[in-house]
Amino acid sequence: MQFEQLQKDMIAAMKAKDKKRKEAISSLVSAAKKAAIDEGTRENISEELVDRVILKELKSAKEQLDTCPAERGELKAEYQLRYDVIKEYAPSMMTKEEVQTVLTEKFADVIATKNKGQIMKTVMAELKGKADGKIINQVVAELCK
Q: Can you tell me the distance from the alpha carbon of 45 to that of 4, in angstroms, rounded to the nearest whole number?
């Protein structure tokens, strides 16, 4: 996701007077700016950085949604909307089958060692942001058997 596109979508939500959507997108823009400043790339915000920030925000929105008490319906609806908006911008993740294919093709030599820690360290560097860590862990565990 390009940073400029996020900003354009935020402006479009403002013009449409969609306050909830604007707030969700605005939180993504702010988080991306903060991450860029922290990494010293304030002027040139990369797509990879924006994707990483979106995934982090999506995870935190999911946690908010999961921990919200059921009797707080209005708050839960607000969290659900925020989660849905952020999910629209999240990069698509690899499926379990795609992860397994990549691991068997690219990392066959590392998998042959059956050292789960070493495999995870090598694989996560390559697949971070492209696949869910839990899925990668499951596939690696299966391949180490």
A: 9
The rounded percent of the chain whose pLDDT value lies above 90 is 34
User: 10 in helix, strand or coil?
Assistant: helix
| Separation between Cα atoms, residue 83 and residue 93, nearest integer Å | 16
Question: HEC states along 62-129?
Answer: HHHHHHCCCCCHHHHHHHHHHHHHHHHHCCCCCCHHHHHHHHHHHCHHHHCCCCHHHHHHHHHHHHEC
DSSP secondary structure code for residue 18 in this structure: -
* Phi/psi of residue 71, nearest 5 degrees: -75, -10
pLDDT digits (tens, 9 = 90+) for 30-87: 999 999 999 888 788 888 888 889 989 999 999 999 998 889 989 999 999 999 999 8
